[in-house]
Amino acid sequence: MRYQVPQFIEVEDKIFGPLTFKQFVYVVGGAGMGFVFFKFLPIFIGIPVALAAVAFGLALAFYKVNNKPFIEVVEAAFKYSTNNKLYIWRKADKKPEANTEAKIASDVAASFTLPKLSDSKLKDLTWSLDINETIYSKEAGKLSTREGMQIKNGV
């Protein structure tokens, strides 16, 4: 049995003449808001606000930024303005200092210093070495415990 696979699924259907359903809603909504502003506000305030509402509706319906619908840009701007911002790092400009040979030599010498062990760490290390040396020195002539266990078990 053969099935017909749908093609061009990213293209929206044109429902109202050359407009998709979303475009129709944006245009009608912008025009309706413009009409409401024009009717209920004084004329010198109503006309600019109505024109802004109509322009916003047309931008939502037809304008694309980097091949993305304008509604996605508006949504991203709204989320950016309402969400918390986290500043992790700000670069501070540093003035370059003149390096002298003595300063460079001291920096190189400082980079080659070895870390020092504290007294307690040194004592712990010597104690563990002494204990291990004592245990293994007693068994020097004998087999190790693992080999002895294997021989006793017949493995």
Commentary on this structure:
By secondary structure, this protein is mainly alpha-helical. It has helices spanning 21-40, 43-62, 70-82, 101-111, 119-138, 145-153; strands at 14-16, 19-20, 64-65, 68-69. Among the domains are: 14-82, no CATH class; 117-155, no CATH class. Strands 1-2 form a two-stranded antiparallel sheet. A two-stranded antiparallel ribbon has the order 3-4.
Keywords:
155 residues, mainly alpha, two-stranded antiparallel ribbon, 6% strand, elongated
What series of H and E elements makes up the topology? EEHHEEHHHH
E-strand count: 4
Adjacency order of strands in the biggest sheet? 1-2
Question: What share of residues is helical?
Answer: 55-70%
Low-confidence stretches: none
What does the radius of gyration come to?
40 Å
| Biggest sheet architecture | 2 strands, antiparallel
Overall residue-averaged pLDDT value: 78
Number of helices: 6
Supply the helix-strand structural class. mainly alpha
Give the strand content: 5-15%
Distance between the termini: 66 Å
Shape: elongated
